[in-house]
């Protein structure tokens, strides 16, 4: 039947019905707006972007306080060249330092500094407050649990499609 998908009214997005398209659009708009809001707050208060906080947090929570640049790019779902520029910027702020890997000397490790840990500790408070204010406080506890579980399921399915070498490498350096 023309104009329907599985008996439902088709949307302007091929392959989706109207309810599916609306759900996707609401999710995407809210996720992007939340990211932009948290990013703006972190820049305004700490001069750090959300991805900077995520990178510093990855380093701080790794076993050695260090990670290979390529592993950071994988974990941040970013291009290696973008992470290199990000690390350079954080290095000029003395929040991280770079060195060659001890194993082969060709790879590059990023290591969080004591200043980086101090700045991260304070920025995580702003980040946590923002998550509470702009995300958690807008949902009931059952809604929070449901959205968390649904996002976990989506993320797990997407990660199972990736090659094993790209999943979960930070912290194993």
From TrEMBL:
Annotated GO MF terms: DNA-binding transcription factor activity
- The segment(s) forming the HTH marR-type domain are 20-156
Signal sequence extent: none
Any one Gene Ontology BP term: response to stress
Q: Which residue windows are transmembrane per the record?
A: none
Q: Which SUPFAM superfamilies has this protein been placed in?
A: Winged helix' DNA-binding domain
In terms of InterPro entries, this protein maps to: HTH_MarR-typ, MarR/SlyA-like, WH-like_DNA-bd_sf, WH_DNA-bd_sf
Pfam families reported in the protein's UniProt record = MarR_2
Name of protein: MarR family transcriptional regulator
